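Nicotinate phosphoribosyltransferase structure dump, as promised
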Amino acid sequence: MSDATTTDLYEVTMAMSYLREGMTGPATFSLFVRDMPPGRGFLVASGLESSLDFLSGFRVDAEDVDAFASALHRPPRDLAPLLGMEFTGQVRAVQEGRIVLAGEPLLEVTAPLPQAQLVETYILNQVNHQTTIASKAARCVLAAAGHPVVDFSLRRTHGPQAGLQAARLSAMVGFAGTSNVAAATAEGLSAVGTMAHSYIEAFGTEEEAFRAFARSHPGPVTLLVDTYDTEEGVRVAARVLRDLDRGPGSAVRLDSGDLGALALTARAILDAAGLPDVRIIVSGGLDEYAVDELVRSGAPIDVYAVGTRVGVSADAPFLDSAYKMVEYDGRPVMKLSSAKVTAPGQKQVFRRPGFADVIGLHDEQPPGAGVPLLETVMQNGSRTVERPTLDESGEKFAADLAGLPPAARRIQAPLAPRATISGQLTVLADQVRHRIEDEVLASFANLRNHERSATGSQHSVPR
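structure tokens r here:
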């Protein structure tokens, strides 16, 4: 069974209906985030690469047909029209690592309607989750103000794949390492790690534990010092590191309590022991808000290890993202329902200095100093550009971040820039709205009038 079954059932029922009705013309779907989550001044576009991997390998095989049929309680022959379907369409997208704003298409898919519909769920899943995590991690890098940040999130992420993605994305936006061995191996990242409190508890004393750990690991070591009494733990660690001449490159880790105050105490103890090169690492429920507070306090912390709150983006765990059809068979379409109006037609985002972005039509000329963000990355179901390296995506992020207005970079109460709509897109939206009102809404009115007439006729019949 392939990833084709990783979809919502209604995608299957719609695709089947389209095929039965012969509706296989090209459809364009636009994926965008309606509104910025609370506490966010920007988003980092992510999830494109895994989406392209999925699309390039997409195929409905016999096992998928059997699964669809079972879910619908129908014989497999009813679902046979789906057998062998592959993705043969085009994708235009914002490259991973670029900073984007609410309302801006992150990608647009153009393909035969049943194909474009059937891949919706998977693509939304990938882009939604990864953009959420990358945006949260980017704020941690900002909050750390140049201090290294490392990823400790794997044990609390929503599954191993989510953990791999968190490690990869955090590295893309500037993290220095990850505890996730699989991610470090797959992506060429620095693997980082220390010890757990259970390790300390397994020995009779902290000193026994520290010395045993050092015997097993030549070179710099990081010792966890808050299992019992943190201040005493730092003193014991200092004695062990000094006795074994393991100072340079080694560290102590604080994982609980008042981290700012404990860091001050730890720094004083280490310096007094002649260990100024021993670093202080802190962890324990940190995110950008806690890191920002610690940095602003001047606490002598060298490295911030963030886990749960970042790996699940605890304060904003999802995006109000949508994948909406904007054109079918050359006809622009839009949704008019309250609070969820969509703009019609294939689009382009033009990036201007200061993030004065303009959302326009895909074939209109860029406004002054505007640079198009959406690029063709897939044609006829195959990639048209090479997969970027993590460093290349990171460079795109760093360049965009440097041009982001200071108010959008704030950790507390950021102010997100808002993209404007081009004149041509505004005109098209008005035209499509009027067509819908004239054709679709008018038909509703005619139907209601017919029903009233029928009801009136029934009442006039003698009894």
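The first strand starts at residue 26 and ends at 33.
lmk if u need the other ones
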